[in-house]
Amino acid sequence: SFAYFTIKDRLPQILTRVIDTLHRHKNEFFEEHGEKGVEAEKRAISFLSKLRNELQTDKPVTPLEDELPDAALWNQYLDYQRNLSNGNGEPSWFQSPWLFVECYMYRRIHAALAQNPPIDNFDVFKEGKAQNFFESQEAVIALCTYFQELLKNIKDLDEKQLKEELFKLLQVSLWGNKCDLSFSAGEDSSQKSSPLQSLENMVPYILVNDMEKVWSLLVNAKKNRTERSNVRVDIILDNAGFELVSDLVLADFLLSSKLADEVYFHGKSIPWYVSDTTKHDFNWTIKQLQSANHMWMSRCGINWEGNLKKGVWVFCDHMFWTLPHDFSSMGGVAPDLYAELQKSNLIFFKGDLNYRKLTGDRKWEYSVPFHQALNKFHPAPLCSLRTLKSDTQVGLKPGQGEQIQASEPEWMVSGKYGVVQFDAGL
What we know:
The chain is of the alpha/beta class. The protein has 2 domains: about 1-115, Transcription Elongation Factor S-II, Chain A (Up-down Bundle); about 125-425, no CATH class. The chain has 18 helices and 7 strands. Strand 2 (about 230-235), helix 11 (about 240-255) and strand 3 (about 260-265) form a beta-alpha-beta unit. Belongs to the damage-control phosphatase family. Sugar phosphate phosphatase III subfamily. One of its GO terms (biological process) is methylation.
């Protein structure tokens, strides 16, 4: 299965890159922290080399030994996995659910640094995320330019035109999800060309297209809003780099078109899955745009900084997003986050990992309804914007998955197909 290939080949490659990154920054650690920095780097590398060996030789998954706030929840989850194995030995790297061991690896990478001050705040994935952003410059410029031109006469657009623009920007945000560094094991995955030119050609590759439902929900919320009730949209972010810019443009469009009054962004509280967005990445991206020597890029950055200051945009992180649990257990594990999401009129879940957690990462029949796969996770109406990079997919028409499978065996993992999949939550 794709899971086997991921654990066997991709994850060791990612660990090797992390070790390599730390090694390359040795001088920097020395300059900043003296011998202490170099000692910490050595300890972190030794911890990670041991981890890589455990992974490659299918050792049991061991409890976390650090004192970080989420360690107890992780170890409870490991006990739960032990009980699932019905006495068939300890859960090991190749004998456990993919979602669990993949998340566990990233949590152990975090521990390798967190336990080794003074380099405990070093993000081993930061360079890759920055590179992805800079290598996607042309696409970022094209998108910011298009959007700023659109803003000039957004007030004059009728409902049909607004809907067309929303659909365009939803698709840009959907295909922006192709820029995923954990998928390419850190190889270049930047967006090189203007994302707007190819949208027409990409429509046939959207396997579930619920954009009409998203539009109706937003238009009805707008019509039914009162003085006291703001229309709130939440975006559960995925990758930094070009994808994040496409999400920010979508969020700005929702505000500028009055389809939403406030947007809440949810990122990761620790570096995660190579290119996932942390608070640092979020702020860094807006700063980069602000200071760009391109008029429309800097205009976007300045406006977005303003949205954060005014409080109509809010960035939040929560440790639940970096736990191995699927989302159906959010109500029990993180009731505060679930209650927060219940305040939303619409939640966008970006990307593949979020989709895997929405559907419990199971090998579903393709035609199982999305609503059923969510397993009672319904804080608010939600929509998944996801390009397929793992072999879990639900909500297809009968025969649709089998038909593609016949001509394209790799269709579920190539990133070529996408879904805009909506669930009303009722």
